[in-house]
Amino acid sequence: MLASPLDHATIFAAFAETAKRYPDRPFLNVPCKTAENYGTAAGEISYGEMWRRVDDKTATYRTAGYGADHRVGIMLENRPAFFEHWLALNALGVSIVPINPDLRAAELRYLVDHSELALVVAIPSRRNELLQAGAPMVVGPEDAIPTAVAAYKMQTLDQSAEAALLYTSGTTGLPKGCVLSNAYFLNCGDWYKNVGGACALTESGERMITPLPLFHMNALACSVMAMIAVGGCLSVVDRFHPSTWWEDVRETRATVMHYLGVMPAMLMRATPSRTDTRHDVRFGFGAGVEQPLHTAFESRFNIPLIEAWAMTETGNGAVIAASHGNRHVGSRCFGAPSPAVEVQLIADNGQLVKPGCYGELLVRRAGANPRFGFFDRYLKNPEETAKVWRGGWFHTGDIARQNPDGTYVFVDRKKNLIRRAGENIAAAEVEGVLNRHPLVAASAVAATPDPLRGDEVFAVIKLADPANADNNTAEKIVAHCLDQLAYFKAPGYIAFVPDLPLTSTNKIQRGAMQKIVADLRDDPKTVTTLHLKKRRDV
Question: Which of 196, 222, 238, 243 has a Cα at 20 to 30 A from 211?
Fold first, then answer.
């Protein structure tokens, strides 16, 4: 049996032990459609073969003078070459900066400057753009590695060393650079290896599939380290393709699939088929599945969707997952914390809230080191680091409530709550109802100022058919909301748009929404539906 990842000093050391134990097992699998889209070879890459590739890359980087204190950007999407460079760099103590390929000029300039990259390894088509953004040197995945300009510091590699710098999605402002140590990654693997329950993994040949990007902690830390921890095979697809998802699942023989909340909703729109249950998946692991779809998805596809909670900043140091006990399917329940995690819910005044009431989720690791498994710090931002850790607790900015049985339910991000006439309204709850209307393809909700009520609900909606964008459609949508929500939660304004502002992981860019709502408030095409929001007789 493999040792715990935490018995090793680095990510590479954990990988090397698994490669020694299971050299002939597949480490990566590239599905046919992903290979076609990337122009790479399809099929499996064994642990032994990947180790040989990593050794070659390690020698090349060492000769070129790379080591601790260097950061190397990687913009290779989900290609196998990403793993070759990452593991080789980690073996030398070099921190990687995974770069979202959707970033453009201004965003790239910020990231390159803020992270102080020594080198970027990127797909050739982005080379010039990265150089224009200020990257000192840019090479392709198979190019010769240029000599490092700055010397590195000699130091012993251990779990505390920086392994990666991941930038937050920037939904509310400039992205923050989260410094992640080797311990952060190793603990992710240890947690997944030992969580048990509905998410139990075995060492007998697990096969995980994820469509999530490697610049996201879910794929980079959770999925990769989980498979290394148990000698499993990871299939990383180029992105989520709803029409071919189940083909990929069957082709890769996946036993576990990772998801984001948008995926089940898209998959449920397909026509039911006799092949819906023809797969080997034992469970899905993710967050944000729409409440009414949760039970329906599990019934149709025969896959339990295990909801979990974590952030880039918390890693698996304070992950909470509904892997044990009552999952409260269809309620956004993410389970109860393990004994290793401590939780508080507090009101705006800092006081603890009672079970059943909304409160901001505060977490920390139980024991002597409350920050174990968390991010190390925000790069060049000690003030924000201290702010989120004030009082010895990590302030998540997420609103949750506690069930009587000790499980927790996700409500929304604190910044997404709309305060209308003394009532708290979760944008995510309203969006979930809006998205279930047959005319709605997607929606986003934000607050807009109201002289009487403080805030009013403003809905920005992408229609399935743009030709339906009129007052009648807006009123139908609001009527739909009034049937399923308290009257005050229904939109008071509706604006139809061709597209929503989304991050690379299909999350709504809340910062962009604030400006969009401000611009659309007085637009003559915006439909006012305040007259429909009336309290019903009991």
Answer: 196
**Cβ neighbourhood burial of 227 (10 Å; 0-12, 13-18, 19+):** buried
Q: What is the DSSP letter of 324?
A: S
Q: What is the pLDDT of residues 474-484, one digit of tens each?
A: 999 999 999 88
The count of domains in the chain is: 2
Positive/negative CA dihedral, 286, 287, 293, 294:
positive
Report d(CA 346, CA 392) in Å as an integer.
14
The range of the structural domain enclosing residue 208 comes to: 5-402
Q: Which residues contact 422 (CB under 8 A, 6 or more apart)?
A: none
Under the phi-then-psi rule, with left for phi > 0, alpha for psi from -120 to 50, and beta for the rest, what region is 185?
Answer: alpha
- At position 171, the amino acid (one-letter code) is T
Instruction: Show the tokens assigned to 269.
Output: 């729109």
Biggest CA-to-CA distance, the chain: 77
Asked whether residue 261 is assigned to any structural domain, the reply reads yes
CB burial of residue 136 (10 Å; 0-12, 13-18, 19+): middle
What digits encode the pLDDT tens for the residues 171-198? 445 789 999 999 999 999 999 999 999 9
The neighbouring-strand residues paired with 321 are 308
When mean pLDDT is compared across 6-20, 166-180, 378-392, 522-536, the lowest value belongs to 166-180
pTM (predicted TM-score): 0.86
User: Closest Cα to residue 213, out of 232, 246, 238?
Assistant: 238
* The two structure tokens encoding residue 134: 């200020």
Residue 450 included in any domain: yes
Closest CA to 67 of 88, 95, 96, 92: 92
Going by DSSP bridges, is the β-strand pair 256-260/283-287 parallel, antiparallel, or unpaired? Answer: parallel
Q: Which residue has the tokens 């409260």?
A: 328
Tokens of 299: 């019934």
CA proximity to 374, closest of 357, 360, 388: 388
Determine the residue type at 4: S
- Does residue 523 sit within a domain? yes
Cα–Cα distance measured from residue 319 to residue 221, given in angstroms and rounded to the nearest whole number: 13
